[in-house]
Structure prediction request, 434 residues.
Amino acid sequence: MKKTWSIILTISLVFVFALAGCSSSSSTGGDSGKKAGKEKPGKATLDIFSWWTGAGEEDGLKALIELFKEKHPDVKIENAAVAGGAGTNAKAVLASRMQGNDPPATFQVHGGAELNEGWVAAGKMETLDDLYVQEGWSDKFPKELIDLVSKDGHIYSVPVNIHRGNVLWYNKKIFAENNLEAPKTFDDFFKVADALKAKGITPLALGDKEPWTATHLFEDVLLGMLGADNYKKLWTGDIPFDDPKVKEAAETFKKMLSYVNDDHSSRNWQDASQLVGTGEAAMNVMGDWAKGYFSNDLKLKANEDFGWIATPGTDGLFMVITDTFGLPKGVKNPNDVKKWLSVLGSVEGQDKFNLLKGSIPARIDADKSKYDVYGQQTIEEFKTAGLTPSLAHGSAAAEGFLTKVNQAVNIFVTQQKVDQFVDSLKAASSELKK
Ligand code: GAL
Prediction:
């Protein structure tokens, strides 16, 4: 009897190990192996993880994937995007995959603290120094950008774009009909907003169903009120969050919120941009992925249907957001990942992507003439502007702080208590790396 049981046990174990062996031929370690378990060794899937799905978001990624397929038809590729602006859902999915040692082959990550204090500090990323040498990239990206994707002298990801965060978009027809000029200062903004309100037009569109959009607006208010130097001091702890300047910025933010659409909490960023595009609201503060949405989805023309200006008080400044991709440790197909990175870091790849995404190419040798009037102007402005890191999009501070700020901002938008808001920011700032 005993012997029979031991035979059954042995057979079962052999079966279990056979299954385990099968799943280990997947693209990545751990659980994802089960999904790609039928892959032959060497034919692992290159799963590209991002949050670019839907209107205004996915066109650039799809174009880049098509280019990659043309160049590498032998590599099996999977678009593993998880919906939700600014990585609202994707970042949580990514965190659990990374913790479970089941990384995607490559993933979207913002240059700056999100990459360096997050995945690099946790020892989860391979360096890409060799790839940069092989591709001759060290002088092809602006130094500031290479710094954003480097830690302790090593490079960890490849920037596919540069987005500008401090943009105020406006409906040209509404402004022309009401003899208004795009506001340069906060005083201008409130004058324009009052004039619009008096005409029954919603001055400012907001869609904070995903709270990051309100954080995005707040960081632009902080930049406009504090100026670049003081804004940067917030992230080093040289200016505390209970500084009177931050309180003043919070008051201004609160005043701006009194001009937004009533249904802001049920809209996402596209729904808010749409209000401006269709003339139901006059202005919207959003990164220039909104340009991709206006052009690709709403079929609007830059400088005819919609106009833009730096958000109040930020003329000459550029809130930098860079989407980058890297090589996580432990993936089964690092060479395929490097092929992907080479394509997205090439001039051709950057143009395919950025012409549709609304951003400008990260490479300095891309062909400016291919871009529309917004793109060309932004390429020029980036060269001379004062560059500042975005909080809402991962450059200024690590994820732990940002999560708490998003919560505090979300509460502030409903309760509008300035002191309580400033206290929460101050409490959250203990998360900042000094
Ligand atoms: C940002 C990202 C952009 C855009 C935006 C809205 O964080 O850098 O590429 O996707 O979110 O989802």
In short: The chain has two domains: 46-161+322-384, 164-320+391-431. The longest strand covers residues 106-110.
